[in-house]
Amino acid sequence: MLIFPSKNLILRNTVNLVIPGGRGPSNRRNDEEVKRIVRIFFESQKPVAVICHGPQVLISADVIKGRTLTSYISVKEEILNANGNYRDEEVVIDRNLVSSRHPGDLPYFTKAFLSQLQKWEQNINRTVG
Is-contact 17 47, C-beta < 8 A? Predict the structure, then answer.
């Protein structure tokens, strides 16, 4: 699992990306390495999870156009301005992306993301086997 990258990260060995909320996303959203990693995960359709302010990183990486997600309410306008679709729900799943609004949604977020990881593993096993 990847939360925020280190310079020594080997992406081919990383299965999923989790971007938490809080101040981290606004502090790292313009980091070119962070944006590059987010784009790689979206291009490869690996599981990505964001909660609270996490979508700010996706917005800066320019990967949410046409995607449906949720976030902390103060991020709603940013999502809409980036041509994303916003839903005010506990958890929203759009292909490889799982999103939730705030820590109160963690039970739904966790269940949905674990389900995404299981689907990813099943797909890998079908491809390899």
Answer: yes
pLDDT in tens, 41-92: 999 999 999 999 999 999 999 999 999 999 999 999 999 999 999 999 999 9
Looking at per-residue pLDDT, the higher value among 12 and 60 belongs to 60
Give the other-Cβ count within 10 Å of 66's Cβ.
9
Catalytic residue among 17, 52, 58, 64: 52
Is 102 designated active site?
Answer: no
Q: Which of 29, 35, 46, 53 is catalytic?
A: 53
What long-range pairs does 33-36 form, CB within 8 A, spacing at least 24?
Answer: 33/5, 33/7, 34/4, 34/5, 34/61, 35/60, 35/61, 35/62
CB-CB contact of 57 with 29 (8 Å): yes
Domains present along the chain, CATH in parentheses: 11-114 (3.40.50.880)
CB-based contact 85:66 (threshold 8 Å): yes
